[in-house]
Amino acid sequence: MSKPSNHHTSDRQRIAETEARLKALIEATSDVVYSLSPDWHEMRELDGRGFLKDANAPSTKWRSENVHEDDLEMVNAKIEECIREKKIFQLEHRVLRADGTMGWTSSKAIPILDEHGEIIEWFGTAKDITPRKSAEEALENAQVKSDQQKRLYETVTSSTPDLLYVFDLDYRFTYANQALLNMWGKTWEDSIGKTLLENGYEPWHAEMHEKEIDQIKEKKLPIRGEVSFPHAVLGRRVYDYIFTPVLNEYGEVEAIAGATRDVTDRKKWEESLESSSKALHAVNEELANTNNELEATIKEVAVVNDELTKANAKIEEGQIAFRLAVNAANFGTWFVHSITREFITDARSKELFGYREDEAFSIEQALAQITDEYRPYVTEKLENAIYNNGDYDVTYPVIGLHDNRLRWLRAIGNLKADPSGDFSAFTGIVMDITEQYLAGEEIKRAEENLRMAVDAAGLGTFQISADDRIFTASPKLKTFFGFHPDEPMSYEAAISQIHPDFRKSVAANVERAFSEGTRFDMEHQIIGYHDEKLRWVRAIGEVHHKKGKKFFTGVIHEITEKKLDEIRKNDFIAMVSHELKTPLTSVKGYIQLMQRKFAGTEDNVFSSMLDKADFQIKKMTAMINGFLDISRLESGKIHINREMFNLSSLLREAEEEFMATTSSHILIFSPIESVKINADRNKIGQVIHNLISNAIKYSPIGSTIHVTCTSDHEFAYVHVKDNGKGIKPEDASHIFDRYYRVENDNMHSISGFGIGLYLCSEIISHHQGNISLESEIGKGSDFVFSLPLNVD
Ligand code: ADP
């Protein structure tokens, strides 16, 4: 703090103090300080501070000494303006520095005014801004240069069809030329700074390039590759690309520059070039061959010439043959002039219309012979053919003019412009097709009769197409299914009206018919759609091919009455058989009692009579049991009681039984494999028993019967093979039918009802097995049944 000033300190002293402070302040700045006369003519003082030349004494030469001549005009103009307006002078301009070189200053001078507002002095400072200015200038130059460079690059990169681009180390595009932008269909703003993925590259493609960029970052070596991807307009193209590392001054990878070239066309050229050169090679070879051949050919020409002469003769013969053929086929030919309607015909045409050869014959006359019913149709076709080039292939009946004969004629014509261009010639043939036509009509009538017969027999008919299961049914058939005769009915609707007990097997058999071509023949129940009536029907169908398409066609007829009769009959048989069993059992009991009683006596005659009675009773019991089985089967009461057992043990039991009771035949049970099955032991035993009994029954005494049991991984097989009389193929196909017996001379001497094999086949099919027969007449029969092994 300063001491309080003395009240008597003079003004002069105060001014001196202020001046000293001011000076100190000015000293402290590094700027040039100067003062000038009011009109700037005289530089009163200039402290150049090493930057400008000092002016210790007032000088009027300061402009030429300090200001750079190029800026003088500008400086003067500014001085004038500031003097006029008495405002602060402020300007950046070039100066001549103390060392005589050019420099830059930022100069500011303030006008000092007297109490009247007149300028008495300018007091100013000037700063050395040379370094800043030269930096700015250098920057500006650099900018101009870089702009030039950029323009140059732009011009180069935008005029090439190649794709040029730069990635930063984060895989972002920092540059993309116009061709690449075009290919993406994007703008610079949309795509720069974005990654490959963001610019629409497929993930595999982006990933591939990113890996390559990583590799370049690591190895600092360029990578070249080929890739194929879609172009916005041109579709899928092939590109050849090269990625190059951009290194900074320290040799580090700073960016990755890429160039890609569309080589699709080049590839194509290369390929075509290759194939052309191959072709060229081939042509050359051909040429060599051809030369050789040419010589040979010249020799051959002479031969061919001869041949030609001969062929010409043949053609002539051919033409004659053609004419003869026309005559033989008895075609008539005709010609119509499209303008004059002149009608030229041959004798045969006239004959077909009942005209004589020498008579005049016009189109109108020809039309007049056509029956009234057909005339308008033929006339219209004819006119349309001549004047509109319509097709002309017509069949019509004609009554001959003189002979009054009815003929069916077919005429085919063709319109052709005459080479003169003046008219068209309508030419053609006409033939007598009466016989074929009438035969066709006959077939139609026969079909109609058949339809009537089918109707009369009460048969419903159907057709199912293999491709799309389109179902066509006759009205009668629809009524069986409880639909109205004219109501639409689909295949699915038909199947769903079939009684659930049969539905699956009917559908499966239809499919089998389609896939294996098997005949379909089934009896099943239908529940009426509207009337809900239960009907029994028999359906028979077969697969046919019509016009290259597969169809399943057939007939259905109602058998409800017959079926109900059968059911009644079965019920009756069941009842009777059942009633017969009780007395039979008593009789059997009595006989056994008697057998025991006479066992110890000498009465052999009586004893053997009892044995025979016992044998007959056994036969009768077996028969009755058979009938009972049938009735159970028919009414669906057959039950399969499955258990696991070994088929071989069952066969061993059968072996023991037959060995004990049969002395008439040689029975061989071998090989008998051990095989476990899940089945109804009693019923399978019944089947085996039946087959062996039949073999004994139908083969001569003393002959051999072979029984075998084998298996594979799916089935067990049992064969019963005899050397008997065998079965004819036509019988073999029915042998498993109910009550079927082979008709022959000694049939009546062998007892039976034809139910044994029927029962066998039913039992086996209830086990999802199969039974079949191979037989040769006079040699013997081989019955085989199979049972599936893997059943739960
Ligand atoms: P049946 O009680 O009449 O024997 P099946 O149903 O067992 O009834 O046999 C039907 C018919 O098949 C027999 O009538 C017979 O003509 C013929 N048949 C069955 N087995 C044989 C066989 N092993 N050899 C020749 N014919 C046979």
TrEMBL record:
<dbReference type="Pfam" id="PF02518">
    <property type="entry name" value="HATPase_c"/>
</dbReference>
<feature type="domain" description="PAC">
    <location>
        <begin position="223"/>
        <end position="275"/>
    </location>
</feature>
<feature type="domain" description="PAC">
    <location>
        <begin position="89"/>
        <end position="141"/>
    </location>
</feature>
<keyword id="KW-0808">Transferase</keyword>
<keyword id="KW-0418">Kinase</keyword>
<dbReference type="InterPro" id="IPR013655">
    <property type="entry name" value="PAS_fold_3"/>
</dbReference>
<dbReference type="InterPro" id="IPR013656">
    <property type="entry name" value="PAS_4"/>
</dbReference>
<dbReference type="InterPro" id="IPR000014">
    <property type="entry name" value="PAS"/>
</dbReference>
<dbReference type="InterPro" id="IPR052162">
    <property type="entry name" value="Sensor_kinase/Photoreceptor"/>
</dbReference>
<dbReference type="InterPro" id="IPR036890">
    <property type="entry name" value="HATPase_C_sf"/>
</dbReference>
<dbReference type="InterPro" id="IPR003594">
    <property type="entry name" value="HATPase_dom"/>
</dbReference>
<dbReference type="InterPro" id="IPR004358">
    <property type="entry name" value="Sig_transdc_His_kin-like_C"/>
</dbReference>
<feature type="domain" description="PAC">
    <location>
        <begin position="392"/>
        <end position="445"/>
    </location>
</feature>
<feature type="domain" description="PAS">
    <location>
        <begin position="149"/>
        <end position="220"/>
    </location>
</feature>
<dbReference type="Pfam" id="PF08448">
    <property type="entry name" value="PAS_4"/>
</dbReference>
<dbReference type="InterPro" id="IPR005467">
    <property type="entry name" value="His_kinase_dom"/>
</dbReference>
<dbReference type="Pfam" id="PF08447">
    <property type="entry name" value="PAS_3"/>
</dbReference>
<dbReference type="InterPro" id="IPR001610">
    <property type="entry name" value="PAC"/>
</dbReference>
<keyword id="KW-0597">Phosphoprotein</keyword>
<keyword id="KW-0175">Coiled coil</keyword>
<feature type="coiled-coil region">
    <location>
        <begin position="266"/>
        <end position="314"/>
    </location>
</feature>
<feature type="domain" description="Histidine kinase">
    <location>
        <begin position="575"/>
        <end position="791"/>
    </location>
</feature>
<dbReference type="InterPro" id="IPR003661">
    <property type="entry name" value="HisK_dim/P_dom"/>
</dbReference>
<dbReference type="Pfam" id="PF00512">
    <property type="entry name" value="HisKA"/>
</dbReference>
<protein>
    <recommendedName>
        <fullName>histidine kinase</fullName>
        <ecNumber>2.7.13.3</ecNumber>
    </recommendedName>
</protein>
<feature type="domain" description="PAS">
    <location>
        <begin position="446"/>
        <end position="517"/>
    </location>
</feature>
<dbReference type="InterPro" id="IPR036097">
    <property type="entry name" value="HisK_dim/P_sf"/>
</dbReference>
<dbReference type="InterPro" id="IPR035965">
    <property type="entry name" value="PAS-like_dom_sf"/>
</dbReference>
<dbReference type="InterPro" id="IPR000700">
    <property type="entry name" value="PAS-assoc_C"/>
</dbReference>
